[in-house]
Write a structure and sequence with these properties.
The chain is of the alpha+beta class and 171 residues long. It folds into 2 domains: 85 residues, 2-Layer Sandwich (NE0471 N-terminal domain-like); 59 residues. Helix content is 39%, strand content 18%. The strands form 2 sheets. The protein has a 3-stranded antiparallel beta sheet, with helices on one face. A 3-stranded antiparallel beta sheet has the order 4-5-6. β4 and β5 form a beta hairpin. The termini are far apart.
Length: 171
């Protein structure tokens, strides 16, 4: 089997988490994550065998940490499930909350004023300013920010540039 490219995330260890359907991940780069697989297990019938807690706890590393897997049966061929490390990393990132500090970094990265960012997110400027000081920003805001950062067309479609200062008075 060919080895995956170096930029793919590689796991050092995987263990069942404290909560049902969660995994504790330790990455080769030293990072740690907890990922909740509940959505995967209950939305994709392929992963239905993992609804059994005893099967879920059989999780193990495969392919030098590029994949995790579970033994779902008696060891016969076809009785294994696996899941790639890059998808685990994406799930972990999606499930992490966004902070006000991260929202500030996003605003700077996409070069928006507070008013422009508020408009793009569909919130009042005062609400956006409140988000900047929160420990956890609403999940839907995080998803919108990630989408706009990843796709300039989406960002361009939602942002109308603003001029600083007060609007001119109409005579």
């Amino acid at each position: 089997m060919d080895m995956p490219p170096k930029e793919l995330p590689q796991l050092k260890s995987v263990n069942p988490g404290r909560k049902p359907y969660t995994l504790s991940l330790h990455w080769r780069d030293g990072g740690r994550d907890t990922v909740d697989l509940t959505g995967l297990i209950f939305r994709d019938e392929f992963f239905a065998p993992l609804r059994d807690a005893a099967v879920f706890r059989t999780v193990t590393l495969l392919d030098h940490g590029w994949v995790i897997g579970w033994d779902t049966g008696d060891g016969r061929a076809g009785d294994e499930l696996d899941y790639p490390s890059d998808d685990l990393k994406r799930l972990a990132e999606v499930q992490k909350p966004m902070t006000g500090a991260a929202l500030k970094r996003w605003k700077k990265t996409v070069n928006l004023s507070n008013a422009e960012a508020a408009e793009a997110l569909g919130v009042a400027p005062s609400t956006f300013k409140d988000y900047l000081n929160r420990r956890h920003v609403p999940h839907v805001v995080k998803i919108a920010c990630q989408t706009m950062a990843a796709d300039p067309v989406v960002l361009s479609g939602l942002v109308r540039p603003r001029k600083p200062g007060r609007p001119r008075k109409v005579a």
